[in-house]
Design a protein that fits this description.
about 250 residues; alpha/beta; 7 helices
Length: about 250
């Protein structure tokens, strides 16, 4: 199921998104590296993929905006056709603070941004997938949606909504040959939001992890690639915890 398959990775200029773009390209997919502001970083990911013999393009779009996403897909279709694999990884901003210090705009705004982006990109790729009766949709969640951590209520609540959204879609879209799954990382090193854990917190997380380290973006990318490929063809509505055993469910 590789060959000329087209994979769209949102928020792919760095971290998990960039690692996923490189891996899917290495496995033979044509990769769309979506970004919001980091044009240079996105073009660097594309250059890396092309240097390794793969095919990639960088396309700017705010995935919360239907017109921007429609423009992105028009650009992709002109060159490669419809999207076969959607990896929705783009992370919208969120407040890190206790609930008692938080405004409704901070909590509700994050939930709205999270769901608006997932809704928009999913709506946009579905016509092509349903026409072919084939597709893979993978959402990036977080272990914080199950296991709370201080200050992370906005992100954890928004991602919990995303995970339940994915289950409903899996049920509805299964008869059309489209699978929908979620990858839930625990703490991940070497990303733009790694600073959320200071040195002492990171050490506590590592101590609580049976495999003895934090995840790297490539660890998460490998779980995404599994869901994007043929080996997961009879799996939908599932959640993969990529956390080194820190939480088991």
């Amino acid at each position: 199921m590789t060959g000329d398959r087209v994979a769209l990775i949102t928020g792919a200029s760095s971290g998990i998104g960039a690692a996923t773009a490189r891996l899917l390209a290495a496995r033979g997919m044509r990769v769309v590296v979506n970004y919001l502001r980091s044009e240079a970083a996105a073009k660097e990911v594309v250059a890396d993929i092309e240097a390794a013999g793969g095919e990639a393009m960088a396309v700017q779009a705010d995935v919360r905006e239907p017109a921007a996403v429609a423009g992105l897909l028009d650009q992709v279709r002109r060159v490669w056709g419809d999207v076969d694999v959607l990896v929705h990884n783009a992370l919208t901003p969120y407040a890190i603070k206790p609930f008692q210090d938080m405004t409704w705009d901070e909590l509700g705004g994050k939930v709205d941004d999270e769901m608006r982006a997932a809704f928009t990109v999913t709506k946009a790729v579905l016509p092509g997938m349903t026409e072919r009766r084939s597709g893979r949709i993978i959402y990036l969640g977080t272990g914080l949606s199950r296991r709370p951590r201080e200050g992370m209520i906005a992100l954890g609540t928004a991602k919990a909504a995303l995970t339940q959204f994915a289950r409903y879609l899996a049920q509805e879209l299964g008869p059309q040959g489209i699978t929908v799954n979620v990858v839930e990382p625990g703490p991940v090193a070497e990303t733009r939001i790694s600073h959320v854990l200071d040195g002492e917190q990171a050490q506590r997380q590592i101590a609580a992890t049976p495999l003895g380290r934090l995840a790297l973006p490539t660890d998460v990318a490998q779980a995404v690639a599994f869901y994007a490929g043929e080996d997961s063809s009879f799996m939908t509505g599932t959640t993969a915890a990529v956390n080194g055993g820190m939480a088991m469910y």
